[in-house]
Amino acid sequence: MNFTHRFSKMILMIGMVLMMLGLPISASASAVKNTNQPDIDATTGLAIDANTGQILYSKNINKPMALASMSKLLSLYIVRKAIAAGKISWDQKVPITAALHKLSVDTTYANAPLAEGKHYTVRQIYQASFESANAAMMSLANLVGGSTQNFTLMMRKTAKQLGIKDAKLYTACGLTNGEVGKSLGMPNANDNDENKMSARDMATIAQRFIKQFPDVLKNTSVSEYTLGGKTLRNGDYMLPGGSEYDSQFPVQGLKTGTSTTCGGSFIGTTNRDGHRIITVVMHASNTMPTDPGRFIQTKKIMNYVYSNYRYVNVAADSTTAYQKVAVPSGSDTSVKVKTERKFNYWIPRDKNGSNVRLAINNNVKDGSGIKAPVKVNQQIGKLVFNDFKTMDDKTLSVPIAASATVSQANIFVRFWRGLVNLF
Predict the structure, then answer these.
(1) Distance in angstroms between the alpha carbons of the first and the last residue of the chain
(2) What would the DSSP string read from start to end of 264-287?
(3) Residue 35 belongs to a domain
């Protein structure tokens, strides 16, 4: 083997090492940062891709804040899980105790009157709870948990299971501990104690709810519902017929929250051109019962996402910026790689590429490449999008697999390569 050939081979191997280290290449543009993010008139704002959890807009998303009725989204998720598990059924009767009746006729809060001793179906109470009927939500909590206090413990446990560590939870409906009364509230808690979670937490709950039970969107899209002789109107003004409805953003819920400490809050979702996002706005203006502030800020976020990002679909078995990976001990010294599954992400419209790197799995790593033998379709690592963060504070990634089989080179070839690499 002459010197020129050895030198060319060394240059090739160095190039592959640089690629493995994730240094900039033509398909890996500079860091993707969108500088056009609007400053909404609310304490907190968030937008995520409903499927991947990619964060598309963020403002103060980690601070736990008062939730009011947005709390019901977690409660109704727990109820829906109980139905799916067969612990309760849609047609099962929900008993109304004296304490629940008393709360239901308190016109200080959003309610539908529930007659003591009368039974309503789970289906009826479930829908009424989406319309913010507080006593209705507490009656479901009483049924599922055996008591409203035990249901609150279920809420705390479920939040932790979803990775939420900063939740403060006292009632199923979102009223303060004192507002629901001693018989329904948590013992050893102050009257002013109220539910608090961050925008990130609420988006986590919404994402799980929609993924696990997509039919929830039928419930959150109902603009009015009658229970106990009272018609409850959904406080989501972005639904069709609402004062803030916008055909550009076909909103399907999800839940509002309103109180003195919560201000005007709203967790919403829309699906435009087949691409669903989830938004959270917390502590927007709430100067009057019909204040549209939270919805105006939500539209601002939705418009920002769809105007400033483009949606990229990557099919399964697609080639990537890293078209080959070195196989130092293989019969072939490299193998083509591909995406293991279909994948999608959002990228700012003014960017042509993404800042990506290839992270090789430790169990197959061999220096700057992978070990031989290699099997076709064997997962060898993942393509990491350095600039795109997800809800769990990780970078967005997609598994990468080998496109072909590569056997191990015989011992003489490996020995010779070792000698060559010394020069």
Answers:
(1) 12
(2) EEEEEEEEETTEEEEEEEEEE--S
(3) no
The model's pTM: 0.87
Q: Looking at the chain, how many residues does it have? A: 423
Q: Is 137 helix (H, G, I), strand (E, B) or coil?
A: helix
Same domain membership, residue 261 and residue 329:
no
The whole domain housing 319 covers 3-30+315-420
210 and 278 in contact (C-beta within 8 Å)? yes
Tell me the average confidence (pLDDT) per consecutive run of 10 residues in the chain, 423 residues long: 43 39 34 68 98 96 97 98 98 97 96 92 98 97 98 98 97 98 97 98 98 98 94 96 96 96 97 96 93 97 96 86 86 92 91 84 92 94 91 90 91 71 67
Question: Which pair of structure tokens corresponds to residue 392?
Answer: 């769990």
Task: Let me know if residue 37 belongs to a domain.
Answer: no
Task: Indicate whether 350 and 208 sit together in one domain.
Answer: no
Angle at 58 between CA 54 and CA 62, to 5 degrees: 100
Domain stop point among 308, 335, 362: 308
